[in-house]
Target: Transcriptional repressor NrdR
Amino acid sequence: MRCPFCGYEDTFVIDTREIEDQRVIRRRRECPNCKNRFTTYERIEEKPIMVIKKDGRREPFDRNKLLAGLQRAVVKRNIDNEKLEAIIDEIIANIRKQGISEITSKEIGKMVLEKLKDLDAVAYVRFASVYQEFSSLEEFAKLLSQMKKE
Model:
């Protein structure tokens, strides 16, 4: 690999580690010419997941968009971002395990609700109210009564 500092053609690897659940390889390299060190990452290039929106549009899955929705649902709850990231990782893994490249936003919403149900009831209700587009107090009451039965 070419050195980013001096352009020398032949650098060598001094350390290799697997990170992110063995899905990424991190390599520390050194240039024999200028002695500078740098890091490279090797990742599997995965087929992008396309999300089919309610209106039929298709757009690439956006992890940050889902994270923002989860963060809104857990505002002022004692839930850290690591748990939210783990939920997203599980959802992505589930989609990939199914071997599909397209999924509806509705299906993603259902997956999120299943994860939030186990994590935090308030976050679950908040997310459900947006996901299911509640427009009245009766819809909230219905959801809460269903939750009490379960």
Summary: The CA atoms of residues 49 and 138 lie 36 Å apart. Strands lie at 12-19, 24-30, 37-43, 50-52, 58-60, 102-104. The chain has two domains: 12-43, 50-149. The radius of gyration is 22 Å.
